[in-house]
Amino acid sequence: MLNNIIAIIFRLINFSIIVAGSVYLFQKYILSSIKERIKEKEIFWQNLRINKESLIDQKDRIITQIASQETYAQYLLNNIVKWQKYIQQKELQKIEQQKNISIHIAQRIDQQEQNYSLELLKQELLPDVFDKAYDELKKKYQSPIEAQEYIDKVLNQIGK
Q1: What torsion, rounded to 10 degrees, do the Cα atoms 54, 59, 63, 69 define?
Q2: Which of 91, 149, 152, 159 is least surrounded, with the fewest CB atoms within 10 Å of its CB?
Q3: Radius of gyration of the chain (CA)
Q4: What is the pLDDT of residues 99-116, one digit of tens each?
């Protein structure tokens, strides 16, 4: 029985030495690597948080830039619409101006045709009219004195 007690004590001492040795080895070699891994994981998670915040800030900036660009694009589209209206208005004015010029040219051509026709008519009829008037005046004013008085009278009226 004493042997049993001594055996139990030595088993407890052996067990204590094994536990103490295991704790020592665990603390010296395994615990430090576990602490390093935990620190690496903490740094990793901290970097993830920082990256997440950075990405959120970047997303907000991009959303702001998109809104700004959309506003600018709308401004440009409005200007394009204004320019299109202005160009259409100028084209309509140009077409109207061309119509007016065409009408004016047509009127001038008509007037010139009328003047030319009148001039041709004068050239054709004037000699006949002068001949008839000459013959009529010759019959009416056969005496040279009456004829001279009539010519003087006409010249005085033309001179006035």
Answers
A1: 80
A2: 159
A3: 62
A4: 999 999 999 999 998 888
Alpha carbons 13 and 63: distance in angstroms, whole number? 70
- Cα dist from 117 to 6, 12, 25, 83, 105, whole Å: 157, 148, 132, 50, 18
Is 152 in contact with 158 (CB distance < 8 Å)? Answer: no
Looking at residue 33, its pLDDT comes to 85
Tokens read off for 99 = 């119509």
| 8 Å CB contact between 130 and 139 | no
Pair of tokens at residue 155 = 């010249």
Average pLDDT over residues 96-101: 95
- Per cent of the chain over pLDDT 90 is 54
For the residues 76-101, what does the mean pLDDT come to? Answer: 95
Compute the distance between CA of residue 134 and CA of residue 60 in angstroms, rounded to an integer: 107
Q: Mind giving me the DSSP string for 85-144?
A: HHHHHHHHHHHHHHHHHHHHHHHHHHHHHHHHHHHHHHHHHHHHHHHHHHHHHHHH--SH
